[in-house]
Amino acid sequence: MADASAPRKRIRPRKFVGSTKAPLSSSSSSTPPLNSIPQSLLQNEALNAAISALPSNYSFEIHKTLAHIQRHGSTMVALQLPEGLQMYACAIADIIESFSDALTVVLADVTYGACCVDDYTAKALGCDLLVHYGHSCLVPVDITTGIRTLYVFVEIAIDEKHLVETVRLNLPDTKERFLESLGEERAIGEAITSGLKQHLAIAHDGEDKESKEESSVGPPTSLALVSTIQFVSALSRLKETLSSPLLNSSSPNLWPGPYAATVPRSHPLSPGEILGCTAPRLPDAPDAFIYLGDGRFHLEAAMIANPGVPAFRYDPYSKKLTREGYDHVRMRDTRLKAVKNAEGKGTWGVISGTLGRQGNPGHLKAISSLTLSGNQTSSVTPIPILLSELSPAKLALFKDSIDVFVQTSCPRLSIDWGAAFEKPLLSVYESGVVLGKWGGWWEDGEYPMDFYARGSRWVEARKNGEFITA
């Protein structure tokens, strides 16, 4: 073991946008009680100095990881990070090897989400611990293949004061004023089909705005708050803050009243957490929902699941609040075309993804069985295919030997990229529509975004190898 008092020289990573303090989390799943981590680690000056080379607003939970290694006697540790965090892999590996007896290996294959946890590869490499960064525990630690798995959410501290003030400046606190501010009279369940994206930001000092102190009369604006796992703690605090009236504010430009803020949940995800394939459907549609995070991939899942709810996105890095739109009509028309083109076709390639845990034998079995017992008028022959990543060029190699492809990796591959493929590329849900197992979205108005939601037909099929009727 290397001398703990003199760790090797490290390159300091570039600084990221955000607050300068590490996040304080109330989640026991991401930050353990201090008494579960030996004081010898917590008070190790050399270790803390090494950790300081990492961004201070990113919680990589190094102390917890080292405690886990010590407790279980791990000797070979696999580190799996998404591409946005890959730059810190070598620094983390260096710290682990300097302050424990373990060696490390970095799994550098692309990691799109929690479904890509690669316990199979880690086990094959002889690792006895896998540390997966940046995603929640979608694949439970009790079913990973013969290897201990530690999930590190990498919670990120943000400027929460700016977030609250930006919301209160731009979104009126009463339902009537809020709906007026949208510039449209929105009926519950009415789809928003435009691609509108409008930038909102806090006004500069001295900007002429009428005082809002006497304006908060009437039912409060209802807001559903969602985010990725990195910001769920901040999301919880945002709910508490917005649910209370603003007191002693120095700015007359902020709406002072309480909002009817909620944090919806799609089990087994954390409250407010959404994935690109899984987002809660809100039966009592709020006036809007706010997504806390960068990018649109996760946000779009919430918009697909709730087409009648206006969406706003607060990017904690750029500190911008934007109104977001999604072209539901175009998406549904495109997917309907794929479904219609697949009807009556005889040979189906059923693709089980091999990127981490994306694929599942249960799905492969359920879809193959469905092709043999569905209500389609013509017979369907299923051909199992194992494939890590899909591309039009890869599937084009099958030429005319396969008429339709069904991929089980992620429904968003079909939704977002299906039109780029020469042959219909169906999701698991769409395959059941074609085969008559359940109705389409044009019948019930709902395009499901519940791929990992507890009790969904997709989750049950993973376990049982057959589909339940919704």
From TrEMBL:
EC number annotated for this UniProt entry: 2.5.1.108
Catalytic reactions of this protein: L-histidyl-[translation elongation factor 2] + S-adenosyl-L-methionine = 2-[(3S)-amino-3-carboxypropyl]-L-histidyl-[translation elongation factor 2] + S-methyl-5'-thioadenosine + H(+)
The keyword Cell cycle is assigned to this record: no
Cofactor: [4Fe-4S] cluster
Pathways involved: Protein modification; peptidyl-diphthamide biosynthesis
Record carries keyword Thylakoid: no
Location of region: Disordered: 1-35
Single annotated GO MF: 4 iron, 4 sulfur cluster binding
Cofactor binding summary note: Binds 1 [4Fe-4S] cluster per subunit. The cluster is coordinated with 3 cysteines and an exchangeable S-adenosyl-L-methionine.
Pfam families in the record: Diphthamide_syn
The entry's keywords: 4Fe-4S, Iron, Iron-sulfur, Metal-binding, S-adenosyl-L-methionine, Transferase
GO terms for biological process, alphabetical: protein histidyl modification to diphthamide
EC category: transferase
Alphabetized Gene3D superfamilies for the sequence: Diphthamide synthesis DPH1/DPH2 domain 1, Diphthamide synthesis DPH1/DPH2 domain 2, Diphthamide synthesis DPH1/DPH2 domain 3
Function, in words: Catalyzes the first step of diphthamide biosynthesis, a post-translational modification of histidine which occurs in elongation factor 2. DPH1 and DPH2 transfer a 3-amino-3-carboxypropyl (ACP) group from S-adenosyl-L-methionine (SAM) to a histidine residue, the reaction is assisted by a reduction system comprising DPH3 and a NADH-dependent reductase, predominantly CBR1.
Similarity annotation: Belongs to the DPH1/DPH2 family. DPH1 subfamily.
Protein name: 2-(3-amino-3-carboxypropyl)histidine synthase subunit 1
Organism of provenance: Armillaria novae-zelandiae
Organism placement in taxonomy: Eukaryota, Fungi, Dikarya, Basidiomycota, Agaricomycotina
